[in-house]
Structures are given as structure tokens and as C-alpha cells.
Amino acid sequence: MARKMWMRGTVAAVSAVAMLTLAACSSEQAPSGSGEETAAGGDEMSEGDDLITIGFSQVGAESGWRAANTQSIQDTLTEENGFSLSFSDAQQKQENQIQAIRSYISQGVDVIAFSPVVETGWDPVLQEAQSAGIPVILTDRAVDSEDDSLYESFIGSDFVLEGEMAGEWAVEQYDGEGYTMVELQGTTGSAPAIDRKEGFAAAIEGSDIEVVDSQTGNFTRTEGKQVMEGFLQKYDDIDLVFAHNDDMGLGAIEAIEAAGMVPGEDIKIITIDAVKDGMQALADGKINYIVECNPLLGPDLAEIAQKVIAGEPVEKRIVVEDLAFDQEAAIEALPDRQY
Amino acid sequence: MPTTTPARPRAAEGGLRRIAHHTLFWPVVALIALLAANTVYRPSFLSVTVLNGHLFGAPIDILRNSAPLMLVALGMTLVIATRGIDLSVGAVVAISGALSLSFIATSPNPGSLSTVLLAIAIALGVSLVLGVWNGFLVSVVGIQPIIATLILMTAGRGIAMLITEGQITTVTSPPFKTLGAGFWLGLPVATLVAGGVFLLVAFLTRRTALGMLVESVGINPSASRLAGVKARTIVWTVFALSGLFSGLAGLILASNVMAADANNAGLFIELDAILAVVIGGTSLQGGKFSLSGTFVGVLIITTLTLTVTIVGISPLVTPLFKALVVIAVTLLQSPRIRESFAARARQRAARPEEVSA
């Protein structure tokens, strides 16, 4: 009897825990970057009185890329530049993000900006913002909605184009050599994973690069390494790895080295992102090519927010320009790489 | 209905039946089935070669990748045996990795052995303190384990983020890398460390009275206290050990990729560890525990992860595939399910005899 009661208690406690964790994660963070006043953009600002209050809901802090993105936003949307930023971290959960947006609506901020964790399910909360008369700006990731009047503008990289750039370089370098390629995908179902895969596949069509396998490494080093270990056990003749971000590529490097091969030589590696660690590996010759995914969206966001408040028309889609690096370009760019 | 089972040659089946009734029978069958499935897809799956003076192959990868989960699950087994549960292990993993790598990254000489040893000592010390904190909340303050460790579970990743300042800390330090990715006598150091801890715990619990004391606390805390067992000390100790082992797991995970990722290091490892313990036949209601069961459980989970890649399960259905395997293993282990299967088999076997008679 006592045992049964105990079990029931445990079940109840586990469900309570599940709910608590969901709720506990939405705690807002004070913008930690506000102490360092390194204004990166928004120069022609009117000083002082009329601060634009902006609520920003970030996806999380899941990668070096995201950390740089957060830093850029916090460093740009400062009081010196005419903004009062409240920043919240959604810990990669849509419900946290919806909660944060609702709280921004009830606070009556001037502008809401966010990077959607997933593509779908945003219509109700965006309609709430619209009926409250608060303009919404999307950064980095898009939403999949029929009604594009729900947001003012979407600032971010074109992930399909990133995949294409990576694929085109691969074709240029390796077509005709009958390369066998494996792919390390990002988090299943996320826009960058879907689009980069699609862009790359389109670019290598018609070449003799053969994609033999594609698995998810969840954008992390540990899983990138684990999946690559599996690939190395499964196939004898991998020539090329395409990783959807640097971190998974760095994990793959570890796996390739552990298998007694030389990354960048025996197995070529192409990644996307161009964070500092990735650029270092590129400069060292362990990665062969990196397509940048520019995280410094702060200045663009500041500009669009000002225009929206001033009632000026803004473009629905603002594509952030992405560069691409080979080894020499990486060595050149590395010293003043901010992230 | 058919209470009389048909007469069978008992002697011949006795040994087999005893093996089949062993608690570890079905987990081991599941492990063998997974390995067999991999071998079908990749005939050389089980082959181990020598590469650069160390062993190389899928079984070695499995053993090496099992090490962190093995350590966490060991602590979890002891905690569960005292009727507790430790949800904070993943957070401790993240803190330990963040502490050690941040220390190495800021030290003037990241490659020196003394720096690395100091970093390891600091990380393990803090992990032990965190375990002691959990134990204090449970055994002295009397908070339910699931709630007590939930505190650190939610706070811990935040602490790790503070330590790494939200960045992924990357370092180059050959001595530290040895821990997670190095080899000694041809075997992965991580595996040797986890194996050593496993043997130590097995020795302490099975060759001394400690294991019995842990079980008695788990079966009935009040009765064991009345019988003179220091239940409070036992509970406190197992939580402290769980923290320490998780810290060691965190070091291995950080060393594996030489990066401290406060967000993702050891994410959901508490669930994997609990699963490994349960697959191994230790009841969540406390009491009897099986270290060898946990060992098999850990191997199943790690092999499952590799299987997804080798068999080429689409990422879209990976969670479903894993869930199905876990459901199959746990159902096969359930005595009630096995009983009803056996009864059905007996019925089926009995029927033709009735007809012929």
C-alpha cells in the first residue's frame, strides 16, 4: 500500500517537475552587455529623452553563433543609441517565447523583435501584437505564416543561399573526382537545417559528388563527433563532409583525427557559420571552406526599428550579406574577428 | 484454467529456464539484438583494429562514449537504491566541464600537466560540494529527493552559463584531452576511468556491508534506522557520490570535444541515466539494485545512438525508433507481461494435446 502511494506521489511529482521546468525557463535576463558601451551601429541617433522601448526574445544560447548574435543586439540597442531593451532568453522553447511576447505586449513596448524557435504556430500571438498596435520585427529566422502583414520585416541570412554557396564551391573544387559525401544536419525541422540541405543539394546536382548519408548532429560538437564516428565506421571511403554549422564540423574534426585521418586532407570539410573557432580551424587547414552566416544583426535591427517607429516604409525581407572564406581569407580575417 | 502444465523434460530445460529468468536476460538479449542489427548493416561492425598504437573500431567507440553515462548512472543507481532520485546530474556535468575548461583557458600555461590536474581537482571538488548540498537537502532538511535535486537542475545550467559567459569555451591542452579522447595501453582513458570507478563501487557495495546498508535504507528507512543503520549518513553519501561521479562525467564530456558547452553538455543525461538504471532492473521504488544491470543498460543506450547512424534511421523518426526499442526492452522485463505471454504459450501448447487425447 505504502509503496503504491509512494509511486503515485512520484508520478505526480514528475509531472510537476515537467511543468515547473517549462515555467522556470522563461525567467527574463537583464541585458548583461549594457555595461560595455561599445556602440556598433545606429550613429545618427537623437540622444536621450524618447527611448524606443524594444522587447527582444532570443532563441537561447545554444551556440557560439547565438552568443555573438545576442552580443550584437545588446551592444547596439543601448540607451546611447536611443533604445531601452528588455531581453529574454527562450531556452529554445516556443512556449517561453510566446509567453515573453505576451508580456512585452502587456508592458506596451514600442517594438517587439524575436528570432522564432520554430517556423509555425505564431499567428495567434502575432495577431495579439497587431491588435495592440505593436510592430513586430523578425530576426535570423522566419515564420511560416499565410498572413505576412503580421510582421513588419524579416532581417536575416538566406539559408538556402548559404547552402548553395557551399555546394557551388564543392562542385568547383571537387567535381569530376567522384567524391563520396556525408552530411551533418542541424536540428531536425529547423529552418537552417532544411534550407541549407536544400540549397546544397540543388547546387551539387549534376556533379559527381554523391551524398551517401545525412544525419542530424543537432548543431552541437558532441553530437557532431558522435555521428561522424558512426559514419566513419559505416563507410570506408568518405571524401567530403558538409556540416550545417561550425560546431558540428569541429566535432567531426575530432572524430576524423581519432580515426587516424587528417581532416582537411583525407576528408575535406565544408561548414557554415564562420564563428571564431571554426575560422581558426579553417586557418589551420582542418576545414576547407566556410560560408559565413552573419550574426551581427544588431545594427540592421536598430535601423529598421527606428524606421518603423518613424512610420517610414521598410522592406519586408532584408537579406544580410554573407561572405565565404577559404584558408587564405580566414587567415586574413581572423585577427579582427569579433565572434 | 490450465493449472497443470504439460509434463516436460525438466532437467534439460532447467538451466535454460534459470538463465531466462535472470533479471539481466532480456536486457542482454536486447543488447545482442542491437549489435546483431548493426552487424547485418555493416559486417565489419564488431571488428577491432589497431590504429596508431591503440584499438579502433565501433565497439571501442561504444565503450568510450559509454563512459560519461556509465559514471552518471552509477551514482544514480546508488541514489535510486535509497529510494531517491537525482535530477541535477546533467547540471553538474555542465558546471564541471565549464569550470575545468574556463580554468584551463584563463591559465597562463594551458598545456601543462599541473594546470590540468588543478582544473580537474577544482571541478571534482565543486561537484562533490554540489552532491553534498543535494544530500543535505534530502537527508537533513528532509525535502523529497525529486524536489531537492530539481533546485540544482534548474539553477545549474545558469551557473554553468555564468562561468562560461554564455560562450562555448574552447581550449587546446593535450594533457586534458587525454582524459576524454586519449588512450592508455590501447584502451580509451575515459573507459578505463569509468571502469575503475565501476569496479571500486562494485567492490565497496558487494564486498563490504555498504551495499546491504544502502538496500536496507531503500527498503525501509525507519526500520533500518531502528536497527542501528545510520540512514542519514548513507543517503547523504550516495548523493555526494552522485555529484562527484557526474563531475567526472562532465570532465570526460568536455575533454571529448575540448569545449565547454554550458547549454548542451549533459543535456537530458539524467533521463538517460534513470533509463539505464531501470533497464538494468533496479526498481525506482528503492531497495535492491544491480550494478551489472546498470552497466548493460548504459551499453544498450549508447549502442542505440550508434545504431541510428549505422542503420541509417532517418532523423525524422529517430526519437520514435529509440522509444520503440526502450518500450520493447522494458515490456520484456516486466514480470507481469512475461507471465501473460508464458500463460498464452502454455495454452497454445496445451490445446493440441487435449485434441489428440
Describe this structure in words.
The complex is a heterodimer of chains A (339) and B (357). Chain A is α/β, with parallel strands linked by helices. Chain A has eleven helices and twelve strands. Chain A has two domains: 37-157 and 295-321, Rossmann fold, CATH 3.40.50; 159-293, Rossmann fold. Chain A has a six-stranded parallel beta sheet with strand order 2-1-3-4-5-11, with helices on both faces. In chain A, helix 8 (246-258) links the parallel strand 8 and strand 9 (268-273). Chain A is elongated. By secondary structure, chain B is mainly alpha-helical. Chain B has a single domain, classed as ABC transporter involved in vitamin B12 uptake, BtuC (Orthogonal Bundle). Chain B is built from 15 helices and six strands. In chain B, the strands form three sheets. A two-stranded antiparallel ribbon of chain B has the order 1-2. A two-stranded antiparallel ribbon of chain B has the order 3-6. A two-stranded antiparallel sheet of chain B has the order 4-5. In chain B, helix 3 (58-81) packs parallel to helix 8, helix 5 (113-141) runs antiparallel to helix 11 (231-257) and helix 12 (269-279) packs across helix 13 (291-312). Chain B starts with 9 loop residues before the first helix and ends with a helix. Chain B: This is Simple sugar transport system permease protein. Chain B: It is a multi-pass membrane protein. Chain B: It comes from Isoptericola halotolerans. Chain B: The chain crosses the membrane at residues 24-42, 62-80, 87-105, 111-133, 145-163, 183-204, 234-259, 265-284, 291-313. Chain B: Keywords: Cell membrane, Membrane, Sugar transport, Transmembrane, Transmembrane helix, Transport.
